[in-house]
């Protein structure tokens, strides 16, 4: 509905906007962590198995628990983002990424590492449902598709970084290197969580919750005071009103 309504918007080529650039970069860190946390285990699991003396079933649980609970997180994220907003749910996912990464890095047995991997799975699921929506609702219509596509690129980029990190740790023969590689995800998650404090909530989400004034302030920050943000917000408000009925 939103895309159809904004097709008729006579919008000039969007200017570079610091808030929008920061929003896309920080939001997509969640998708990079998606790729990193699902990819890093492939190179680390051998050392995990050796250190904890895991049997084949336990090994499968360590690997697959993240994917399983990513599905749970995605299902929950689709509902929670409607009630709590996009920005705050992304910040919550950041906290889960931090907690999960540290839990894995400092795990002392099979149960603890699985617990950490489950937390990471929830973070991945929530991010995968929330980040694309947040970016799409904050992006100008003319570049929305391009910005949302970055999400997919960042997932692959995260997997590449995971492979390189595993390779470096293996080449340098770092003691318990798997703890460093699997725990490293906490750093970008921390940057994301703190950085999101500088960004507004999605204007569309604010309108859905009746915060019209805050939606106007968000549009000014994301488009700039000299842009024709009022026309875009008016169309967005029409969509929200139609959906409410």
Automatic annotation (TrEMBL):
Residues 23-245 form the Major facilitator superfamily (MFS) profile domain. GO terms for cellular component: membrane. PROSITE patterns: MFS, SUGAR_TRANSPORT_2. The chain crosses the membrane at residues 20-49, 61-81, 88-108, 114-135. Keywords: Membrane, Transmembrane, Transmembrane helix, Transport. It is found in: Membrane. Its main location: membrane. Belongs to the major facilitator superfamily. Sugar transporter (TC 2.A.1.1) family. PANTHER family: PROTON MYO-INOSITOL COTRANSPORTER (PTHR48020). This is Major facilitator superfamily (MFS) profile domain-containing protein.
């Amino acid at each position: 509905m939103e895309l159809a309504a904004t097709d008729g918007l006579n919008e000039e080529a969007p200017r570079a906007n610091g808030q929008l650039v920061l929003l896309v970069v920080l939001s997509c860190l969640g998708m990079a962590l998606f790729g990193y946390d699902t990819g890093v285990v492939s190179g680390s699991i051998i050392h995990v198995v050796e250190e904890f003396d895991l049997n084949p079933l336990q090994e499968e649980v360590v690997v697959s628990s993240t994917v399983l609970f990513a599905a749970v997180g995605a299902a929950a994220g689709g509902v929670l983002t409607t009630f709590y907003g996009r920005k705050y749910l992304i910040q919550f996912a950041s906290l889960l990424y931090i907690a999960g990464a540290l839990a894995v890095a400092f795990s002392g047995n099979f149960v603890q590492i699985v617990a950490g991997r489950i937390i990471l799975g929830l973070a991945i699921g929530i991010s995968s449902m929330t980040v694309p929506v947040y970016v799409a609702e904050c992006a100008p219509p003319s570049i929305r598709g391009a910005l949302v596509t970055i999400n997919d690129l960042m997932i692959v980029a995260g997997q590449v970084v995971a492979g390189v990190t595993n390779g470096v740790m293996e080449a340098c023969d770092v003691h318990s290197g798997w703890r460093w590689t699997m725990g490293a995800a906490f750093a970008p998650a921390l940057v994301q969580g703190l950085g999101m404090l500088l960004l507004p909530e999605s204007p569309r989400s604010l309108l859905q919750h009746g915060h019209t004034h805050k939606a106007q302030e968000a549009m000014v920050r994301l488009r700039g005071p000299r842009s024709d943000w009022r026309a875009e917000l008016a169309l967005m408000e029409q969509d929200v009103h139609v959906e409410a009925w």
